[in-house]
C-alpha cells in the first residue's frame, strides 16, 4: 500500500514537473540563460589565459578563478534563484490560473514542490555547467608549465554542493513568489538580500550569519576557496558537513511547515 | 438514484462571517443540475468547496464517493472543472494548453482532438490564446474540463461571455453529455431561461441557505400558480390574507403575491376581498416561469428574513 502510494506520488510529481516545463514560455531560451554563466566564465578564463599568459603564473590564475567563483556563489547563484522562483510562480499569477491548476487531480503542496523542484533542477544544471568549466580550466592548466596547479577536489565538492546549501534561500524565494501575487516584491526583496549577503557574512563573523541564508553560498564555497589558496579563515563556526546538514534540515523543516499550512489554506 | 455530490450540514465561515449555513445538497448521478442564486449568496463558495479549493468550517462533503476534505485526489481524477472566468495560459496555443491537462491527468494526447471536436473549437493551430475571444476561451476551458471523459463536470457560469449562437451550442452540448457519456453536470448560471431549457434538477441558494432543491419537473408539475394582486392598501390586504391563511408575501410597492393557489381558490379570494372592502386594480393568475419562480422564492426568503 505504502509502496503503491509512493509510486503514485513520484508519478504525479514527474508529470507535474513535465507540465511545468510545458508551461514555460521559450524553454530553449531559458536553458540558454541557465548555461550563460558557464559560457561567460569559460570566455573570461580563455581571455585571461590567452592575453595575460597567466598559465605561467599560478597566483594570477588562482585570482581569476577566485573572483569568478566568489561572484557565482555570492551573487549570481542567488540572483538566479530569485529569477526562477518569480518566473515559475509568476506564470500562474499573471494568468490567474491557480484555480485552473488546483482543480486538477493534485493538491497545492504537490504544485508547490513541483515548481520548486524544476527551479532547483535548473539551478543544479547551471551549477554543474559551471563546475565543468572550472574543472576543465584546471585540467587544461595542468597541461601547461604551471607548477603546482592541480584541481582541488574538495573545492569542486563544495562547488557541487552549493545548490543543496542554498535550498533555504530557494525555499524563501519560492514561497514569497508563490504567496505574493505581485512578483515584483519577491524579486526586489531577493535582490536586496543577495546584494547584502557579503556585508552580512563579513559583519556577523561568529554564527550570526547562519540566520541569513543568502550568506550561505559565500561562506560555503568561498571559505573553502580561501583555504584552497592558503588564506587564513576566521569565520567558520561549523564544519562544512555540519553546514550542509544544517541547510538541508532547515529546508526539510520549512517544507513540512508549508505543507501543513497549504493543507489548511483556501485557494482564492 | 445514488448521489454524485452530497453535502451534509456544510458551513463555511470567512473569519467570523458565515457564508454557508448548514447546507444540505444532493446532486443525483446522471443529472444536469443547475445551481441558482444571486451574486454574493455563496454559490461560488459552494462550488469551490465541492472542487476542494476551500476548506469547510463544519459538515461533510462527499463527491463521487470520496471525502473532498481528506481524500480529494481520487474524486478530482474523475472530475472536470471550469471554475470562474476562464484563466488560461495566454502565450500558448489551444493544443499546447490542453497538453498540460493531458500530462497531469495522465491521458494520451489523442484526447485533445476529441474534446476540441466536442466544443467545436476549430482555430488556426498557431493562434495564441491571448488572441482568443471570450467565447473561444470559454470553449477551450470547457474542452480542458472534458479531458479524460470525466464522470462529473463542475461548471461555473459555462455560458458566460458567449454569443447567442455559442449559448445555444453549449446548451445542446450540456444536454447531450449526460446521455452520451453518463456524466453528471453541476453548473451555476444566471441565465434562468437557459437553465429552464437545460437542467433536469436545480437548487436555489440564498443568504447561505438552500431554499429549494429538486427536479425542475417538480416546479412545473406542482402547479404552483401564483396570484399577483395590485392593491391600494397593501398593509390591510396583507393582514387580511394572512388571517385568511393564504401564503402571501410582499412583491413590490403595491403588490402582493399569493402563492400555491388554484383558479377556483382565486375566484373565491376575489369575492372575499370585495366583501372585506379591499380594493385591487389588477389580479393576475399565472404559472410562473423559472424566472418568476426565482423572484418569488427570493421575495419569500427576504420576507422571512
Walk me through what this model shows.
The complex is a heterodimer of chains A (268) and B (305). Chain A is mainly α. Chain A is 78% helix and 0% strand. Chain A has one domain. The longest helix of chain A is centred in the first third of the chain and has 38 residues. With 305 residues, chain B is α/β, with parallel strands linked by helices. Chain B has 2 domains: 218 residues, Rossmann fold; 62 residues, Alpha-Beta Plaits. Chain B is 38% helix and 28% strand. At the A-B interface, helix 1 and helix 4 of A face helix 2 and helix 3 of B. Chain B: GO terms for molecular function: ATP binding; ATP hydrolysis activity. Chain B: InterPro entries: AAA+_ATPase (IPR003593), ABC_transporter-like_ATP-bd (IPR003439), P-loop_NTPase (IPR027417). Chain B: This is ABC-2 type transport system ATP-binding protein. Chain B: Belongs to the ABC transporter superfamily.
What is the molecular shape of chain B? elongated
Low-confidence blocks of residues of chain A: none
What is the rounded distance between the termini of chain B? Answer: 34 Å
Which quaternary structure do these chains form? heterodimer
- Radius of gyration of chain A, CA atoms, in whole angstroms: 20 Å
At the fourth level of CATH, the homologous superfamily of the largest domain in chain B is P-loop containing nucleotide triphosphate hydrolases
Low-confidence sequence ranges of chain B: none
Order of helices and strands of chain B: EEEHEEHEHHHEHEHEEHEHEEHEH
Percent helix range of chain B: 25-40%
Pfam family, one (chain B): ABC_tran
Protein name (chain B): ABC-2 type transport system ATP-binding protein
Domain ABC transporter (chain B): 5-232
GO molecular function (chain B): ATP binding; ATP hydrolysis activity
Amino acid at each position: 500500500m505504502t509502496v503503491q502510494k509512493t509510486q503514485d506520488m513520484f508519478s504525479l510529481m514527474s508529470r507535474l514537473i513535465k507540465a511545468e516545463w510545458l508551461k514555460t514560455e521559450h524553454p530553449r531560451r531559458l536553458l540558454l540563460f541557465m548555461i550563460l554563466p558557464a559560457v561567460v566564465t569559460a570566455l573570461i578564463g580563455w581571455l585571461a589565459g590567452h592575453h595575460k599568459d597567466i598559465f605561467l603564473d599560478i597566483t594570477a590564475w588562482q585570482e581569476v578563478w577566485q573572483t569568478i567563483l566568489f561572484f557565482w556563489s555570492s551573487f549570481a547563484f542567488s540572483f538566479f534563484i530569485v529569477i526562477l522562483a518569480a518566473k515559475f510562480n509568476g506564470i500562474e499569477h499573471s494568468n490567474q490560473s491557480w484555480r485552473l491548476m488546483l482543480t486538477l487531480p493534485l493538491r497545492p503542496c504537490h504544485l508547490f514542490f513541483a515548481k520548486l523542484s524544476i527551479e532547483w533542477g535548473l539551478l543544479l544544471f547551471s551549477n554543474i555547467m559551471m563546475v565543468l568549466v572550472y574543472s576543465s580550466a584546471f585540467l587544461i592548466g595542468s597541461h601547461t608549465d604551471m607548477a603546482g596547479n592541480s584541481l582541488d577536489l574538495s573545492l569542486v565538492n563544495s562547488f557541487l554542493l552549493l545548490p543543496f546549501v542554498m535550498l533555504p534561500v530557494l525555499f524563501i524565494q519560492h514561497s514569497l513568489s508563490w504567496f505574493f501575487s505581485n512578483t515584483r516584491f519577491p524579486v526586489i526583496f531577493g535582490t536586496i538580500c543577495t546584494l547584502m549577503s557579503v556585508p552580512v557574512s563579513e559583519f556577523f563573523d561568529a554564527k550570526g550569519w547562519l540566520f541569513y541564508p543568502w550568506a550561505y553560498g559565500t561562506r560555503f564555497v568561498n571559505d573553502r576557496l580561501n583555504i584552497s589558496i592558503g588564506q587564513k579563515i576566521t569565520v567558520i563556526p561549523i564544519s562544512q558537513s555540519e553546514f550542509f546538514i544544517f541547510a538541508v534540515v532547515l529546508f526539510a523543516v520549512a517544507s513540512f511547515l508549508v505543507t501543513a499550512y497549504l493543507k489548511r489554506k483556501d485557494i482564492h | 438514484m445514488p448521489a454524485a455530490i452530497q453535502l451534509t450540514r456544510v458551513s463555511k465561515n470567512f473569519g467570523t462571517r458565515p457564508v454557508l449555513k448548514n447546507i444540505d445538497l444532493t446532486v443525483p448521478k446522471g443529472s444536469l443540475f443547475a445551481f441558482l442564486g444571486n451574486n454574493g449568496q455563496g454559490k461560488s463558495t459552494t462550488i469551490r468547496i465541492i472542487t476542494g479549493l476551500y476548506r469547510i468550517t463544519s459538515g461533510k462533503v462527499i463527491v463521487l464517493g470520496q471525502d473532498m476534505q481528506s481524500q480529494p485526489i481520487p474524486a478530482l481524477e474523475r472530475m472536470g472543472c471550469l471554475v470562474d472566468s476562464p484563466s488560461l495560459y495566454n502565450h500558448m496555443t489551444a493544443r499546447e494548453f490542453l497538453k498540460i491537462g493531458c500530462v497531469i491527468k495522465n491521458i494520451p494526447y489523442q484526447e485533445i482532438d476529441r474534446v476540441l471536436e466536442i466544443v467545436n473549437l476549430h482555430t488556426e493551430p498557431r493562434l495564441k490564446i491571448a488572441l482568443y475571444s471570450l467565447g473561444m476561451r470559454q470553449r477551450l476551458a470547457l474542452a480542458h474540463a472534458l479531458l479524460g471523459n470525466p464522470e462529473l463536470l463542475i461548471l461555473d457560469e459555462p455560458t458566460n461571455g458567449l454569443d447567442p449562437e455559442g449559448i445555444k451550442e453549449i446548451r445542446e452540448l450540456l444536454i447531450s453529455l449526460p446521455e452520451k457519456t453518463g456524466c453528471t453536470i453541476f453548473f451555476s448560471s444566471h441565465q434562468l431561461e437557459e437553465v429552464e431549457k437545460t437542467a433536469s434538477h436545480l437548487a436555489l441558494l440564498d443568504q447561505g441557505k438552500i431554499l429549494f432543491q429538486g427536479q425542475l419537473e417538480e416546479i412545473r408539475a406542482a402547479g404552483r400558480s401564483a396570484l399577483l394582486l395590485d392593491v391600494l392598501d397593501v398593509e390591510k390586504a396583507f393582514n387580511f390574507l394572512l388571517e385568511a391563511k393564504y401564503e402571501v408575501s410582499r412583491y413590490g410597492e403595491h403588490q402582493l403575491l399569493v402563492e400555491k393557489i388554484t383558479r377556483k381558490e382565486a375566484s373565491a379570494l376575489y369575492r372575499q376581498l370585495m366583501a372585506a372592502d379591499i380594493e385591487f386594480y389588477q389580479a393576475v393568475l399565472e404559472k410562473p416561469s423559472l424566472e418568476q419562480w426565482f423572484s418569488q422564492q427570493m421575495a419569500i426568503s427576504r420576507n422571512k428574513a
